Amino acid sequence: MYPTVGDVLALPVMRQGGPHVVAGADGLDAPVRWVHVAEIAEIAPLLKGGELVLTTGVALPDDDAALARYVDDLAAVGVVGVVVELVRHWHDRLPQALVTAADKHRLPLVTLSRETRYVTVTEAVNGLIVDAQVDELRAAAQVHETFTELTVAGAEPHVVLREVARLTGHAVVLETLAYEVLAYDAAGTDPAELLADWQARSRRVRTGERTGYDRASGRLVAVVGARGRDWGRLVLLCGQQPPHRHVVVAERAASALAVHHLLAAGGDSLERQAHRDVLRQLLAAPSTVTPLAELVARAEALHVPLAGHRLIGAAIRPRLSDLPGPPTAASTGPLLRDLAEATALATRRARAAALVADLDGVGVHVLLALSPRADTDAVLRRLAAEVRQAKQAVPLVLAVGTAVETPADAGRSLAEAGHVASAALHRDERPPAGYHRLDDVRLHGLLHLLSDDDRLAAFARRELGPLLTKDAASGSRLVEALRRFCDHGGNKSAAAAASHTSRTAYYQQLARIEQALDVSLEDPGSLVSLHVALLIHDVLALSGDNDHSTG
After folding, report:
1. Residue 96: inside a domain, yes or no?
2. Which residues form the CdaR GGDEF-like domain (predicted)?
3. What is the pTM (predicted TM-score) of this model?
């Protein structure tokens, strides 16, 4: 850092002169780029800005208007302070016109009561400045090295922002050009306070340059992207004019983020990544992972207000079994990315604020934030229609959870929607409204909601274990025969016809089932228990949870 005007006044060589600040005390924190001795009144055109001017005052006018003009000219070129000896021209005090003009520009005006060797002052201060410039060059080299490594590695945004916060000590935010927060590092400050009312505050920041400092807001802003294809802004909250090396950090970080964006063009957008992070933490008990206030602020910064809104979780899953070819990670990844973007567009067309992302690799999760006065069913019907219209070639299942009133309950609605979608995935009918609720999937849906309970798997294992073992050992299809029997409510003839098996052969299969399980299929209680066990077996098989396997 360059020494400030206050630092210069504290030097021993200056203290010997008895310095006294008579005006512009607010400007003592301004950095001094150079010290210049000047006696003539017309010195301003020869300066570049950032200078501390030392003068004896012998050549300065006594006319009030001329003195005011002298200060106006110095302030206009960016001089950071004026030091005047009270020895040769003025002795007791400076003319009031000089003091008033300096106060007007908040330009520090300092008197020295004793004669001072200005050459000694310039040597001392300019030596500090040269040392600061060398340190600045070294720091800049370190910054270039750090961000070159990050750029080559294609570092993720949160890694880049962490380095920015470490190198500057300031909180940093990556936002879209629409002021949505994509990533941030609070640098030890309160994230909820950092993000509170972000859009309104950020919208007022204007620099007019690709990298610039907005003094009114205390923000250093660097545009992210290639010229003509800009997509974001990197914002450092500095509080005061940042040093040059912080500007270099912002510019290099913006370049690293632009490169990452290009390299990740085939993956999720940064917006989807930001939405995914908030959704995952809402699902994972935010009180124990991330403070709920921070998650609410992050969602707000993404234009999705959670507080004071009706929150509804939704899940959208493609019927992969209906698509040509076996589903693979290589094929489902692009499909889900396209589905997420199409869903995000559909929420905007339905005029609903929403967080949208693929969380589990099998479908898209949505958290809708609706006004308490909104017609929920109308919004959901329009959303379902918009999504299906956008992805006509892909058969979809849309499911919604129960509406909740607080962000703390949002995870419950999201989880319920996922369970309903899983339960509805293998049902052929499409509900009239275009989306499934828990009521639509009934017992199957309830079992999906309870699928994490070990007691379900234990029950299914007790009921079906011998039959599953027999099928695995002999290749018989007794479980399928039992499924047909249950699906047709115990009607043997209908079950045999559905199995494309003769009645005699099918009746023999039922007898083998009764023998293996030691039950009577004529007993209604046994039939209900076996049917529920089969549903549990299907639910756990679909979840892919080996720990709950009934085999």
Report:
1. yes
2. 294-421
3. 0.63
CATH of the domain at 241: 3.30.450.30
Q: Does one domain contain both 283 and 260?
A: no
pLDDT band at 506 (very low <50, low <70, confident <90, very high): confident
Q: Is the pLDDT of residue 534 over 70?
A: yes
As a whole number of angstroms, the distance between CA 91 and CA 88 comes to 7
Contact 404, 410 (CB under 8 A): yes
Q: Maximum CA pair distance of the chain? A: 127
Q: Domain containing 65 — which CATH number?
A: 3.40.1390.20
Do 333 and 351 lie in one domain? The reply is: yes
pLDDT digits (tens, 9 = 90+) for 411-446: 999 988 988 888 777 666 677 788 888 776 667 666
Q: pLDDT tier at 184 (50, 70, 90 boundaries)?
A: very high
496 membership: H or E segment, kind and range: helix 492-498
**Are residue 418 and residue 322 in the same domain, yes or no?**
yes
Q: What is the mean pLDDT of residues 392-410?
A: 88
347-381 core/surface letters (b: 16 or more CB in 10 A; e: else) = beebebbbbbbbbeebbbbbbbbbeeeeebeebbb
Same structural domain, 71 and 52: yes
| Contact indicator for 285, 409 with CB cutoff of 8 Å | no
DSSP 79: -
Spatial neighbors of 215 by CB under 8 A, at least 6 apart, are 241
119-122 long-range contacts, CB within 8 A, separation 24+: 119/37, 120/13, 121/8, 121/11, 121/13, 121/14, 121/35, 121/54, 122/35, 122/36, 122/37, 122/54
CA distance between the termini of the chain? 69
Average per-residue pLDDT in the chain? 85
pLDDT interval class at 546 (50, 70, 90): very low
| Residues of the domain holding 35 | 5-126
Q: Report residue 545's pLDDT band, with 50, 70 and 90 as the boundaries.
A: very low
Beta pairing partners, 358? 364
Under DSSP, is residue 334 helix (H, G, I), strand (E, B) or coil?
helix
Q: Who wins on pLDDT, 273 or 428?
A: 273
What Cα–Cα distance (Å) separates residue 119 from each residue in 9, 82, 510? 15, 16, 110
Residue 426 sits in the same domain as residue 493 = no
Residues constituting the chain: 551
- Using 50, 70 and 90 to split pLDDT, how confident is the model at 174? very high
DSSP letter at 320 equals: G
Reduced 3-state DSSP string for 134-156 = HHHHHHHHHHHHHHHHHHHHCCC
